Amino acid sequence: MKSAELATHIGGVRMEELAAMTGTPLYAYDSSVIARQAARLKTAFAGMPHRIMYACKALPNLTILRLMKRLGTGLDTVSIEEVELGLKAGYTADEILFTPNMVAFPEIERAVVHGVHINIDSIPMLEHFGQAYGGKVPLFLRVNPHIMAGGNERISTGHIDSQFGISIHQLRHVERIVATHGMHIHGLHMHTGSDILDAEVFLQGAELLINTADLFPELRYLDLGSGFKVAYKDEDITTDIDELGRRIAERLAKFNAGRSTPVEVWFEPGKFLVSESGTLLVRVNLVKQTTATVFAGVDSGLNHLIRPMMYGAYHQIDNVGNPDGNTRIYTVVGNICETDTFGWDRKLAEVREGDLLAIRNAGAYGHSMASNYNSRLRPPEILVHNGKPLLIRRRETLDDLVATQLEQELE
After folding, report:
1. What's the distance, CA 245 to chain centroid?
2. How far apart are the C-alpha atoms of 275 and 387, rounded to whole Å?
3. Which parts of 182-306 fold into alpha helices (H)?
4. Which tens digit of pLDDT belongs to each residue from 116-158?
5. Cα–Cα distance, 130 to 137 (Å, whole number)
6. CA 18 – CA 376 distance, rounded (Å)
7. Cα atoms in the 13 Å half-sphere on the side-chain side of 135
8. Which ranges in 135-240 belong to alpha helices (H)?
């Protein structure tokens, strides 16, 4: 396919054709991009025993989960609902890691019933778990390595002020709790944040986990989390996963050389696997010129893609409806009743009412963070697989919006 066609197609299907299927706004994903990203990880980490655990919070649609299973990934989950979605999608309990944060103990109990791997990230929860189960259920421990990393303070999770994980300096206390209750620690886990560029961050974290491994003689897994950066702009620097794979493989080989049972390394990519596969397709409702700005107002908003307003994230925007038009400067905004901007001062082919715009790199944390703010309906999702568009989520209706509401007669 020529570059001009790639700009207006997803998985070989015209974007206008996809938009005609369901109307806009619409999320569309290309399964071949997801498969390509999974293959890149498999190649990069081939030099060590490893498992890729898809962080399903990025995009938890059941069809996407089934695709991930076909591609050979396990599942990283952060809520009991994600655990149960994974089981519904066909994952076995052994293929699922549950890493909750600040949850009530009954949620942990449900995970125990399901038989998935459970990752404990606080000393109070570890004590509670030990009192309830003793050594009957093996565990992972989430360690906070006190490493500041990530592209935004809201997605940096391994620093000293983070709510996540057990401080690396509290492991002596952990040892005592584990010994007291006869607990079995099978895995050590860390996750320092998202959009990490420097392989040294992962290597530093891996070294910290390896240096604590002797505290837990039954250790089987080292989970290094993820945070691999993808490109949102042409000039963006991304994580060199090939270098990372080589260097971690070298260090792990030395560590495993002295062990009867080799430790397996787990990674938890979410954005890396699905972000580039996804496009949010929107229609231009209005072109409005003020004394300072030309706004292109579209039929979506921060209720469908919150990343630009929440994180200041950049998403490339293209005018698919008039790709050969003369270039002008627009600020692309949504229809939510507050400042609601997808992109400031963007160079776009001339925008007209009714033009179809493509908001790129929207596969991760787009639909999964969508809401019904302003009582707007969440959009449908289409997966283009082997050149065929498959509707994997219908558009919501007003009936969906009120389905959980109970109308009461007021006196």
Report:
1. 20
2. 19
3. 199-212, 241-257, 271-274
4. 999 999 999 999 999 999 999 999 999 988 775 444 344 344 4
5. 9
6. 21
7. 9
8. 171-181, 199-212
Q: How far is residue 245 from each of residues 166, 230, 276, measured CA to CA in Å? A: 26, 17, 21
- 3-class secondary structure, 26: strand
Rounded to the nearest 10 degrees, how much is the dihedral formed by the CA atoms of 30, 32, 35, 41?
-90
Is 337 among the residues known to form the active site? Answer: yes
Cis peptide before 262 (omega within 30 of 0): no
- 42: its two tokens: 């498999």
294-342 pLDDT per residue, tens: 999 999 999 999 999 999 999 999 999 999 999 999 999 999 999 999 9
Could you give all domains of the chain from N- to C-terminal order, each with its CATH number? 3-28+276-402 (2.40.37.10), 60-269 (3.20.20.10)
| CA atoms within a 13 Å half-sphere pointing along the CA-CB vector of 221 | 28
C-beta of residue 268 within 8 angstroms of C-beta of residue 226: yes
SS3 content of the chain, % helix, strand, coil (to 5): 35, 25, 40
Phi, psi of 60, deg, nearest 5: -95, 20
Asked whether the beta carbons of 45 and 37 are under 8 A apart, the reply is no
Among candidate residues 1, 337, 398, 406, the one labeled active-site is 337
Q: What is the dihedral of CA 165, 78, 218, 192, to 10 degrees?
A: -40
- The first and second tokens of residue 286, run together, are 């209005």
The tokens for 80 are 């009991």
Distance from the first to the final alpha carbon of the chain: 66
